Amino acid sequence: MIKQPAINVPKSLFAIFLDWVTLLLFLAVIIYLVVQYPSLPDQVPGHYDSSGMVDRWGSKIEMWILPLVGAGLWVLMTIVEKYPHTFNYINLRQDNLEAQYRNAKLMINVLKNESVLLFSFLIFQDIRVANGAAEGLGYFFMPVFLFVIFGSMIIFLIRMLRM
Fold it and tell me: With contact defined as beta carbons under 8 Å apart, do 136 and 53 qualify?
């Protein structure tokens, strides 16, 4: 196994912007959950099927799972983002090393933020469904989510191959 050099590649302004926007939205949704929690019914959505409809109801204490998982995901992916020299690359060369590391760091950052924004949406929508303001996630939730996540990965893989 070839050891890739560890070089310091600063976080881009775009990545910093995404982090702040995502953190602010995630924090706002958690505050919304804290405010709404006392008025939530005892049974809240616990799981959704592929069409976005609730297929399991659970205790309202389960509402704290998504914020915990989202925060844990944020922390872990932020740590991973700092070590692009440990990733696998297809065409890593000395002349494109820094550009490849920048691309990989940004890809992890974008996927991290998309994932945490997904958790934010799910928390918000769980509250709405529990309160009777919505019936589910909607039929287009899963295709849109998959398109965004896989579309982002494809864009960054194409960028990597072009370098």
Answer: yes
Mean pLDDT, rounded, for 88-109: 88
DSSP 35-93: HHGGGS-SEEEEEE-TTSBEEEEEEGGGGGHHHHHHHHHHHHHHHHHT-GGGS--SS--
Torsion of Cα atoms, 48 then 116 then 80 then 100, to 10°: 100
Q: How does pLDDT run across 16-54, given as a tens digit for each residue?
A: 999 999 999 999 999 999 999 999 999 999 999 988 999
Phi, psi of 52 (to 5 degrees): 90, 10
Three-state DSSP at 136 gives strand
Percent of the chain scoring above 90 in pLDDT: 75
List beta partners, residue 57: 45
Are the C-beta atoms of residues 90 and 161 closer than 8 Å to each other?
Answer: yes
Enumerate the domain spans of the chain.
13-162
Query: Rounded to the nearest 5°, which phi and psi values hold at 54?
Result: -65, 125
Q: How far is 105 from 123, CA to CA, in rounded Å?
A: 27
The answer to whether residues 126 and 45 touch, using CB atoms and an 8 Å cutoff, is yes
